[in-house]
Amino acid sequence: MTENKKQPPTEHCETCPAYAELEQMGIKLDKYDRVVALAGNPNTGKSTLFNALTGLKQHTGNWPGKTVTRAEGGYQFNGVRYKIVDLPGTYSLLSASQDEEVARDFILFGQPDCTIVVTDATALERNLNLVMQVMEITDKVVVAVNLMDEARRKGMEVDTRSLARDLGIPAIPVTARTGEGISTLLSTVADVIQGNVTTKPMRVEGTPEFQKAVNELVPMIEQAAPGVPNARWLAIRLLDGDAKVQQALMSGELGQRVARQQRADAQFSRKMSVEGRQ
Amino acid sequence: MTTNIQPNEVLAKAETLRGNLSTGFRDEIVKSLYTEAENIARRAVKTAKDKKYDLDQRIDRLVTSPIVGLPIMVVLLSIIIWLTVSGANVASDAIANILFAFGDWGNALFSSLNIPWWITGFIWDGVYRGLAWVISVMLPPMAIFFPAFTILEDLGYLPRVAFNLDWLYRKAGAHGKQSLTMAMGFGCNAAGVVATRIIDSPRERLIAILTNNFVPCNGRFPTLIMLAAVFVAASFPPALTSLIAASTVVGVVLIGVFFTLLMSWLLSKTVLKGEASAFTLELPPYRRPNISRILYTSLIDRTIFVLWRAMQTAAPAGALIWILANVPFGTSNLAAAIADWLNPFGLLLGLDGVIILAYIIAIPANEIVVPTMMMVYMGAGMMIDGPSTTDAIHSLLVGAHGWTMLTAVNLMLFALLHNPCATTIMTIYKETKSLKWATISVVITLGTAFLVTFLTATIARSLGWA
Hints:
The complex is a heterodimer. Chain A folds into 2 domains: 11-202, P-loop containing nucleotide triphosphate hydrolases (Rossmann fold, 3-Layer(aba) Sandwich); 208-258, no CATH class. A 7-stranded mixed sheet of chain A has the order 1-3-4-2-5-6-8, with helices on both faces. Chain A is built from 12 helices and 8 strands. Chain A has helices spanning 11-15, 46-54, 98-109, 124-137, 148-153, 160-167, 182-194, 208-224, 231-239, 243-250, 253-263, 266-275; strands spanning 22-26, 34-40, 71-77, 80-86, 114-120, 141-146, 156-158, 171-173. By secondary structure, chain A is of the alpha/beta class. Chain B contains 19 helices and 3 strands. Chain B is globular. Chain B has a two-stranded antiparallel ribbon with strand order 2-3. Chain B is mainly alpha-helical. Chain B has one domain. At the A-B interface, helix 3, helix 4, strand 7, helix 6 and helix 8 of A face helix 1, helix 2, strand 1, helix 5 and helix 8 of B.
């Protein structure tokens, strides 16, 4: 029998149209059907969105770099149980610092069923760089254009349809603080995972000779490091001479990282989720 | 069957392929990526000239100004600490009165039921008294300081602090984001150490980790506040006490910041040589703090968490002290004997043996230093009826145990500089994955604490101040 125990409504719930279908599952992570990752630039409201979805109280604050570890929580939407992973904010996937590496490793090797890239509606251009880098890795991407209230206050109008058309993936306007747009976001995520919505991520392909080089390298990587997802991305990084990726490949660490991400580190994440402080 | 391809073959292949590509091929791609992003954003966003943005900028010009930026910061800090000190004093006394009265009642009840004296003593004079002390000393300052701090955090002020202090840290060879991790250290040094993950250079990250402890965490704030109120402020007219106490605490915090910079500079000139690296820091827009979230974060996440941790160590510490104070040793008891044995060393630092003993017992959590100290003093025989109020503490320490202004000042300095608590040491070990750096963090802080208190004690004595 399905448990029908709802979390007590939080301040978000009163205004959240999704509350009827959305069940915040907190840290009940034992059984889940799908994994969703929350990526995005620092201070775009990932943790706020995470809290609104899970009913958890992950520490939020108005400064970039607040989340340095990943936190996991759960929600149920239309009967499907999702595990959602809140990642540290990052400007790119060419990570340098520890917190960025946490985010990059999960997107690359954790193989979430869908990645939500949370963007700041008031600084869309800078945020799009990360969106495009994530799209280089996976097709299953949804852009959440957050802070719509702030954009409106600043007199900005964001046309998410134009954005979605250009990027080739869904773009949903949301205001995580009030819960506006969350139900649409969740149903879109569900549609992308089920394939009801097909995504055609816009990719910058580079010159034909570059494409040829990538295509030659991909099968070799797949053989040298079996089970590695995103061989294409790795090929590009190797052609670029990324020392970290070279090192990871040589030491056989690539395979380990995949295993580590999939083991899901539940104990630690649970602790972080419960304590929610860092 | 295909032959297995080795990783080095892949690298070699990548190397050759790269050689064939035109130079700057990746720059081309990155450039087109940026152009594409720019075009997409331009098509999707319509901007009207707005007023709020101008207001944000005007505020920023003020709070990050090279002239008034730093003073504004110090004033904000002073206001928060003043609110904490003046509010906490009253509340601490009230809570202590209630809790100690309850303790006396429990004690009397147990005695009237003919429960053996050692059970009564262990429970009410040991465990319970330890808990009562921790709650009355720590709860009020935290319940005021944390919400105030969280409001600044939610407002978006912290990145401005980093911006203001950047030049100082760069001069010290450290990373500008170190001030963000230090701001987290005000809450808890272990959290501050974890927050250093935002620093990308390993060298500067280590500096930030090793110096984070010079920021007094919330476990140590109550010690500073109590000492400032009981000693420093006591010699001023009553109208000024909370102001003087607050300025003293602000002064101690600034000394802490000074030591952070000094130690960062020393480290970057010696074992961790290198230049400060450049970084970009986003100044987010000011946002209206969400009251319910602030209350939740600051009270449940921070206050209750820190208090609970303190209580978990205070209970066994209280029990330990009670046992030590009740095990006969020679003519007195074990606690007094240990304190006597430590006394010469304590006096050398301008402290005394009991304080050193309290610090040793309080290694698991610095929060319990003052309670531990009080209990050793009281357990050592000089029982005073419920030393719960500021005046009572003053008379206990000064009258019965010969404290001077030097003792109070040096204890504040020692509290600021001494070794990290066990949790923080563990966190440093986990973050650096190195026993060496965890050990060094203890050596550096403890060494600084010994050196500074020794110097102040020697100077004060030679000048005849103490």
